[in-house]
Every structure is written in C-alpha cells, then in structure tokens.
Amino acid sequence: MSAQQLSFYQTTLGKKVVMAISGVILIGFVIGHMAGNLQIFLGADKLDAYAEFLHSMPAVLWGARIVLITAVFAHFWSAFSLWKQNKAARPRGYAKQVSRATTYAARTMRWGGVIVLLFIIYHLLHLTVGAPVSGYEIVHGKVFNNVVTGFSNPAIAGFYIIAQVCLGLHLYHGVWSLMQTLGLNHDKYNDTRRKVATSVSLLITVGNISIPVAVLAGLLSNT
Ligand code: HEM
To answer: pTM of the entire structure?
Structure first.
C-alpha cells in the first residue's frame, strides 16, 4: 500500500490527532467534574442540589456520557495502536533504554493510563452504580454523605489520592504532547508548554486530592 492510500487514522499523526482531541474532551470533563465536586466545601445542600440538577436532565446527562465513553475508547484505542505500531517498527526494543531526555511522567504514560482506567472503573462502581465495592451502601442523591463516608475509610481515600497523582502525571505529559501535536513543537515554545502542562495537571491534582484530605483531616463530616 502506498503512503497516499493510508487513511488519516492509519498514519501516526492521525492517531495522535485522535488521541489529542479525545484527550481535550476528557480534560474538559475532569476540570468540570472537579469544579462541581469542589462544591462539597459549600456543604451537603449545595452539592446534593447540584447532583439533582444534573440528574434532572437525562437527555443532556446521557449525551455527555456517550461523548465521554466514545472519547475514552478513542483515547485508549489510539494509544494502543500507536504502541503496537512502535513495537512493530522496533520489535527488539532498545539495546539500552535511553530515558535521560524524557520525564518520569512520559515514561509512566502507559501504566499510569492503565491505573487511571482502573480507578475510573472502581470510581463508577463506587459512587455512580453503588455496587458493593467499598464496604458500605451509597444512597442515591445523597452525594455529600456518600463521598464523606467513602473517604472516612483511609484505604479508599488513599487509593483515590494515589489515583489522582497518577492522573496528574498522565495529564502533565498528555498536555505537553497535545501541544506538540497541535504544532507547538519548537524549543522556543518549550517553556510555555511546560508552564501550561504544570498548571493544568497541578490544578486538577490538588483540587481532587483536597476532598479526601479534607475528610481525613475531619474538615468535612456526614450530615
Ligand atoms: C476526589 C475526586 C473525585 C470525587 C470526589 C468524585 C466524585 C464523584 C461523584 C460523587 C460521582 C457521582 C455523581 C452522581 O451520581 O451524581 C462521580 C461520578 C463520576 N466521576 Fe468522579 N469524582 C472524583 C474524581 C474523578 C476523576 C478523576 C474522574 C475521571 C478521571 C471521575 C470520573 C467520573 C465519572 C465518569 C462519573 C460518572 C458521571 C455520570 O454520572 O455519568 N471522577 N464522581
């Protein structure tokens, strides 16, 4: 097959663009979700009313869920095909790992991504479905109490905190690579790229971690 016959998705750039677009959708969700969740600091009434508001629009909720699920699949699939493509191009691996020029975040993308995916599955079973995965029963609609009861268990809070650190590292390298895919691939942009990647990943990590930490510190308790 000649190069011209490859579909856009089949090219490395095509896969990277799919990864970048799905990544932007997922980052948008994570920021919006975090902003919504931070209302926990405004009290149970505010957070529960916010959740009720979201659930009062099933068409919007399901529309957003379908977009998110599609983005997760597209993101995972493009990452997997790029990995397979790289492996096929270098079946024996490097004689010596050259990792000096890359960051820890870049080297942990694959496993960090898998941990984030496992976290999302656990998280959905825990707080959305209410499956018996956390040792207590959630009450649908009582989001504040569901979250506080969960994070009062140090094992659950600890797992969430570790997952947020993995997510933060994943986002750091993700945002960095995203800007490269968008064309900001020049030494003169590196400083800006580093600042943007650090700000986005730190904002999300600190914002999310503040919730289990506040519960463990006794700043938030059940109503
Ligand atoms: C400490 C951090 C987090 C807290 C306290 C939290 C809390 C919650 C709660 C309470 C729900 C259920 C809301 C409801 O039923 O009304 C939920 C749903 C969800 N969360 Fe989180 N979350 C956190 C982090 C994350 C992260 C990092 C992700 C993704 C990477 C995520 C993805 C989701 C998804 C996909 C849903 C399902 C939304 C839906 O109903 O379709 N969450 N979260």
So the answer is: 0.91
Residue 4 has which token pair? 């011209």
Distance 140 CA to ligand 1 centre (A): 13
Write the burial class of residue 208 (CB in 10 Å: 0-12 exposed, 13-18 middle, 19+ buried).
Answer: buried
pLDDT in tens, 160-186: 999 999 999 999 999 999 998 888 878
Return the best residue to mutate from 48, 65, 124, 127 for the ligand 1 pocket (most ligand atoms within 8 A of CB): 127
Report pLDDT for 203: 98
Residue with tokens 């649908």: 140
Give the chain's domains with CATH numbers: 3-216 (1.20.1300.10)
What integer is the mean pLDDT of 138-153?
Answer: 97
Query: What's residue 49's pLDDT?
Result: 98
DSSP 129: I
Neighbours of 180 (CB within 10 A): 15
> Token pair of 151, please?
């994070």
Which residue is listed with tokens 């493509």?
Answer: 85
Q: Which residue has the tokens 């797992």?
A: 159
Using the CB atoms, write b or e for 43-73: b if 16+ within 10 Å.
ebeebbebbeeeeeeeeeeeeeeeebeebbe
Token pair of 102 as six digits: 């890359």
